[in-house]
Amino acid sequence: MNDRSKVIACFREAGFRMDKDQFEHRLIAQKLVYLLKLKGVECAYPFHLYVRGPYSPDLAREYYQHADEFSRCETESTLSPAEADSVASLTGLFDKSPSLLEIGATYGYLAYEMHQPPQQAYRAVRRMKSFYSNEQIVKGVNRAKQYLFVPTAEERAALDAELQEWQRSGIQSMRH
Asked: In which domain of life is the source organism classified (predicted)?
């Protein structure tokens, strides 16, 4: 499967029919693909940080040259269950909101590509995206963290232990 086919399959799964003539659609396309790539969906488009967040000129060239395919979501390609889950999780959290995707993808770039500590990445996003409200920035960053965070086995075990303790306490309080 080539990268264009995979991206179109992702857009189809997300219910996103791209119109290359709309700025917001181009922004959504770039940020969806970037966040999916961070989550492990394979595609070779290189991304760099620009004013509006991570951007791939190669991806832009594809959706301009193959605009019909992108707008109709026509492809023979299908996604693996894991890829489809990544798309569903992303669209569930960000609801294809251009501002939240821009903020989340920018945070993801700084934290995961540039390996900035979370607080430093957050402050950089606030500085770079000062035209968005603090509420939007917090929401976008939190959704990026929720989408991208994969707990280690130790973290998962600690969470499970804590949840079991809460469940025991809840059951005991119901008995009394």
From this structure: Archaea
108-152: pLDDT as tens digits: 999 999 999 999 999 999 999 999 999 999 999 999 999 998 777
Type of residue numbered 107: Y
pLDDT tens for 54-79 read 999 999 999 999 999 999 998 989 99
Phi-psi category of residue 84: left, alpha or beta, with phi > 0 → left and psi -120 to 50 → alpha: alpha
- Which pair of tokens denotes residue 47? 């991304």
Tokens at 142, concatenated: 């939190």
Query: H helices within 15-152, ranges in order?
Result: 23-38, 57-65, 67-72, 81-94, 98-108, 118-128, 134-148
CA 41/CA 86 separation, integer angstroms: 8
Around 121, how many Cα atoms within 13 Å sit in the side-chain half-sphere?
23
Residue ranges per structural domain of the chain: 3-174
Can you give the length of the chain in residues? 176
> 83-107: buried (b, 16+ CB within 10 Å) or exposed (e) per residue?
bbebbeebbebbebbbbbbbbbbbb
Q: Which residue has the tokens 């609801």?
A: 95
The residue assigned the tokens 């889950």 is 85
